[in-house]
Amino acid sequence: MQLWQLPFTLSLLTFPWRTLADTSFSQSSDYSSGALGGGPIQTFKSSSSTPAAWNFVVPYNDSTAGQIDPGFIFMAPRGTDVKSPGALIYDKNGDLIWDGTQYGQTLLFRTATYQKDPVILLWTGAIAAYGVGSGYDLILNNKYQIVANFTADLNGTLADFHDTVITSNDTALITAYQPKTWDLSNYNIPNGWLLDSVAQEVDPSTGKASFTWIASDHVDVNSCYASPGSSGTSEDNPWDFFHINSIDKDSAGNYLISSRHCHTLYYVGPNGNVIWTIGGKNSSVTMNANTGFGWQHDARWRNNEKQISIFDNAGTSWEQDSTTSRGILLDYDAAGNSVSLSTVWLPFNQTVSESQGNVGMMDSGNTIIGWGQEPYFSEYNADGQFLYAVQFGVGDVQSYRAYSFNWTGNPTTLPSVSVETDDSSTTVYASWNGATEVVTWRLLGSTADSPQLAIPISNHSRSGFETGMTVTDTNISFTYYQVAAFNSNKKITAYSKFVASDGSSHDPAANQTIDSSSSSGSGSSSSGTLKNAIPGGLVVPVALAVLILSVH
Ligand SMILES: *[C@@H]1O[C@H](CO)[C@@H](O)[C@H](O)[C@H]1NC(C)=O
Ligand SMILES: *[C@@H]1O[C@H](CO)[C@@H](O)[C@H](O)[C@H]1NC(C)=O
Ligand SMILES: *[C@@H]1O[C@H](CO)[C@@H](O)[C@H](O)[C@H]1NC(C)=O
Ligand SMILES: *[C@@H]1O[C@H](CO)[C@@H](O)[C@H](O)[C@H]1NC(C)=O
Ligand SMILES: *[C@@H]1O[C@H](CO)[C@@H](O)[C@H](O)[C@H]1NC(C)=O
Ligand SMILES: *[C@@H]1O[C@H](CO)[C@@H](O)[C@H](O)[C@H]1NC(C)=O
Ligand SMILES: *[C@@H]1O[C@H](CO)[C@@H](O)[C@H](O)[C@H]1NC(C)=O
Ligand SMILES: *[C@@H]1O[C@H](CO)[C@@H](O)[C@H](O)[C@H]1NC(C)=O
Ligand SMILES: *[C@@H]1O[C@H](CO)[C@@H](O)[C@H](O)[C@H]1NC(C)=O
Ligand SMILES: *[C@@H]1O[C@H](CO)[C@@H](O)[C@H](O)[C@H]1NC(C)=O
């Protein structure tokens, strides 16, 4: 990959281990001032991927590095300053793991468990001008193959992107939006149109719904906070009175539905009746000090349904109700019919995020907060203490959510190779989109006379998304180069094509077969390289060295 700032090269020479500076910026004023553009990207030789480059606005240090959750970051940058919008997985250094932008711009992107397997959940489809989606939810297995493709069961209305949850029964909780005619004469709007919100539970394998909840059947459209304004006038400009943006289900079989425009969580029974509400103009649950929220996202049951986490935007594009958005964790006291504040997660630099955002609580106890419309995420330890913050754009760059998940990916594609030669040397670049298990690349060469007779040249530790390998002096004049991927068990899991510097290529040799048991993974989950590859204590001097070099 290209280094963005040459001084980093010097620091890399000084320190032989990999650092976040190799890929990402650290407290770069060039980045945060916009001098590098609204959406700085990484580029590669062996791949056309252009993922957002990160800037650690608050880097981790010796006391925080060891506390970071080992998972990979899942996010989906979009916006006019994003070169290639869509799903991306990164390690915690900001190195790309998987580029899923072939599915286009998305909002919902996370892992889940489906039919006992770890999977990726990814929405794909069209985004309407009024900010809701019409498309399909994909379930991808750990080979990145589509195992399910489903949508709403609503007479042709397709699934929206605001939420999808796979339940422990392998059903999916989804959101959908339906424009419909509505009497809006009380707002002086003739021939009015309402954008109704729908929550459904569907079976991804059959597409059939077992539960459908239509907001206007249960909530007075005039009881919320977003008046029609200039909307409500046509099917293409309907009034979004409710704005569903999350759905969860508890062990009792009831649903927790978040309405942004009603500032309310609705707890709904299987027959659709509202059992209780939290928030809004008429909360049925008593809300103790500092539990109020508005324009919120991502309401989830936590801790055996004793707590609820919420991303409290505290504002929207037309109003700010507080000085900052925040993540909150509420204790829910069912017997006392009340909620009280347990934890608050604040951004490193307090600001209101007008839209989007999430509270990504992880099994490790850590939490990632995605700041939605603001292109930042930050991580907190189990005590709620702030660990670090990353900026992934400056201009119009946003990610609906950001998560940290363990993930093992074994793609069925071949590794990708690019060969660069100049007068004095040849460098071979290798990457393999989505492969999490490569530890070492073996470089092989072949001659024009025997284009498929692979001769091992050297071994190279995998270094980030793309590893550059300089060809050492040999007495053989190689025309083609190839790489083989070794996993941690020293098994070869893939051979690339043979590639020449002019780009011409040959398939791998017929006898270069892979033992499929070696690539299927052990069932263990891979995670970020931070704890595994970088001695925790050594992060500090490097991060500081980079910091000094990059502040202008
Ligand atoms: C999902 O299914 C829909 C409907 O059949 C289809 O149009 C779409 O191309 C599918 N998506 C993918 C990624 O295969
Ligand atoms: C689908 O359309 C049928 C016929 O118009 C109607 O009876 C039914 O209620 C509709 N279902 C939903 C979920 O909208
Ligand atoms: C799973 O199915 C069982 C049996 O139908 C039901 O009791 C339970 O509530 C369901 N759980 C979820 C999360 O849907
Ligand atoms: C407030 O909610 C209660 C139920 O919790 C309901 O009985 C009452 O009518 C509501 N009041 C208003 C003004 O909507
Ligand atoms: C923090 O926020 C203030 C006010 O919005 C802004 O001027 C400043 O640049 C921000 N600092 C960083 C490091 O983003
Ligand atoms: C490490 O980072 C955390 C979070 O920003 C900060 O609170 C702490 O003071 C830092 N510690 C040192 C030694 O710099
Ligand atoms: C290359 O050839 C020279 C002369 O035959 C020999 O001395 C040298 O060891 C060879 N080097 C390699 C890497 O094979
Ligand atoms: C390359 O790595 C493989 C797997 O660990 C090993 O068997 C082989 O000897 C190594 N080759 C060199 C030249 O180090
Ligand atoms: C493939 O066949 C060639 C020529 O017989 C041999 O040199 C090479 O070692 C073989 N490679 C593998 C991976 O078996
Ligand atoms: C994630 O991976 C780490 C090891 O890297 C492991 O300790 C942890 O238990 C895993 N978490 C989950 C939820 O599987």
From TrEMBL:
| The keyword Signal is assigned to this record | yes
Where are the residues of the annotated region Disordered? 505-526
The organism's taxonomic lineage, starting at the top: Eukaryota, Fungi, Dikarya, Basidiomycota, Agaricomycotina
The biased composition feature labelled Low complexity covers 516-526
Write down the Pfam families for this protein, in alphabetical order. Arylsulfotran_2
Transmembrane as UniProt keyword = no
Write the signal peptide boundaries: 1-21
User: Which InterPro entries does this UniProt record tie to the protein?
Assistant: Arylsulfate_ST (IPR053143), ASST-like (IPR039535)
Entry protein name: ASST-domain-containing protein
What's the superkingdom here? Eukaryota
**Keywords of this protein's UniProt record, alphabetized?**
Signal
